[in-house]
Amino acid sequence: MYAAIDPDLKKTPEAQEAESILRACVHCGFCLATCPTYQVTGDELDSPRGRIYLMKALFEGQEPGERTQYHLDRCLTCRACESTCPSGVRYGRLVDAGRSLLEQRFPRPLGARVKRSLIRFGLGKPALFGAALKVGRAFKGLMPEQLAASVPDVRPAGVWPPARHARRMIVLGGCVQPALDPGTNAAAARVLDRLEISLVQVSGAGCCGALPHHTGDHDGALDAMRRNIDAWWPSIEAGAEAIIATASGCSSELKDYGHLLRNDPAYAERAMRVSALVKDLSEILAPLSEQLVHFMPLIRRPSGQAARITYHPPCSLQHGQQIRGKAEALLSAMGYVLQPFAESHLCCGSAGTYSLLQPALSKALKTRKLGHLLGTAPSLIATANIGCQTHLQSGTSVPVRHWINLVDDLLHGKN
What we know:
Blueprint: H1 13-24, H2 36-41, H3 48-59, H4 66-73, H5 80-84, H6 91-105, H7 110-124, H8 126-138, H9 145-148, E1 167-171, H10 177-180, H11 183-194, E2 197-200, H12 210-213, H13 218-237, E3 243-245, H14 248-254, H15 257-260, H16 268-277, E4 278-280, H17 281-285, H18 289-294, E5 308-311, H19 315-320, H20 326-333, E6 337-338, H21 354-357, H22 359-374, E7 380-383, H23 386-393, E8 400-402, H24 403-411
Parallel strand pairs: 1-2, 1-3, 3-4, 5-6, 5-7, 7-8
């Protein structure tokens, strides 16, 4: 695809990258078949190919308008199109650059800006979000059924083993997960402790940057990344083997630090080092599955209906990080029977803040996804991202849990 980039923009690294990505697109339309929003609306401007044409016009200097903003906002950034594209178009990076330029050239109305700022503030402060969630739980019985379904019950974290092993890894605390499901990181710490690896959470680290990044605050996202690098750097220099996020949406963002901070002379080198150290939890544990299964003879394996589960792979894992089959293989090795389901490649509609900013499309995608998941008659739905977990749980009474909790339960005789 030829793009005549605006001469004033062409000097910027973002526009230069956008031009390279645009040139890779051959208009084939394969992406339409795997785009969730296009599947729902049937509007080509709600497909990657349609949005690419809108961004091409934007980078060529055409005056943007509400139509461009409307359709770019409706993109989930699930990156399923990247898994499908035969030309290797880096759509995720293109849409990031396009949205950033659009924010500069076509400011949102005041009300929309305030809403996004409140979302960033409310979700990005763990203490504030945790307090708000406590209030929500206290009044859950008085809420409308649909709203109450989005407020999860309390889940105790359990014991976090002390840092007692020579091998150490850093874990990202996260923004909302400590309040919504604090047991996920604690379960990861217990499982790794069995393997003589200590998982440590470093004070001073905070949001991975995805929250401001995908709500239009590019500078705020970079500041969050720099803060995390500064917080983790002493531990990295002391020999930390890896940086882990149990939420795949966060690990996908962390792996992109090197790219996002590539033009920052003070942080570029360290950001590349951090990105190289980031591992999704499944990348750490899958190669160690034999060691984990070694503990199994002493523990009752799941059986009967309890063994029948369905695993929902988050988009940030299968498309963002191109990781497939690792968590599933580990769960199978430990005795679970995983049920295949249709359209496992399509987004559930959570997509970070998408369910708050695009509720109608988000709900349609959740209903579609749950229809396929529940069609397998699972005793439990497992996933790898707190957003997907909470979003799906709001639409079903079947338990939805992070897969690491299932491994932890087995290893500690809770199944």
